[in-house]
Design brief:
Number of helices: 3
Strand content: 5-15%
Order of helices and strands: EEHHH
Length: about 130
């Protein structure tokens, strides 16, 4: 399952390997959680089979892909013995910081694209200190 994107839409839970190249990936697991990393795909596969994610349950405003993602995250948190996150908490802690960073990057990229500057990669080994 590694490399698959699970998403919930009108057709129910879908799995895709392509079409998500422009998305932001939000890192949720700390590197020291090796055991949970190994179980992640199985937990996701099992979770996605639940009745809540059948196609007729989809609602664009109230029961959508964001709901699916947050419900899965809260499922994993419960496996860890942690409490659930609200939509507001998840958005504030995980989504907004990454979205702000991506926005700054895209803004910089756009400014550079419209200037007379050329970006040249450093030779191997340079620039890493």
């Amino acid at each position: 399952l590694a490399g698959l994107v699970f998403h919930f839409a009108q057709a129910g839970v879908q799995r895709a390997q392509e079409g998500w190249e422009q998305c932001l990936s939000i890192p949720l697991l700390q590197p020291h959680l090796w055991d949970l990393q190994q179980r992640w795909d199985g937990l996701l596969e099992e979770f996605s089979q639940g009745q809540d994610w059948l196609p007729h349950r989809y609602d664009e405003q109230e029961h959508n892909c964001y709901t699916f993602a947050l419900a899965f995250i809260n499922h994993v948190r419960s496996v860890q013995g942690r409490g659930p996150l609200s939509k507001a908490e998840f958005t504030q802690q995980f989504v907004l910081p990454l979205a702000r960073r991506a926005s700054r990057y895209l803004s910089l990229e756009q400014q550079l694209a419209h200037s007379d500057m050329v970006i040249v990669p450093l030779p191997q080994g340079e620039g890493s200190a």
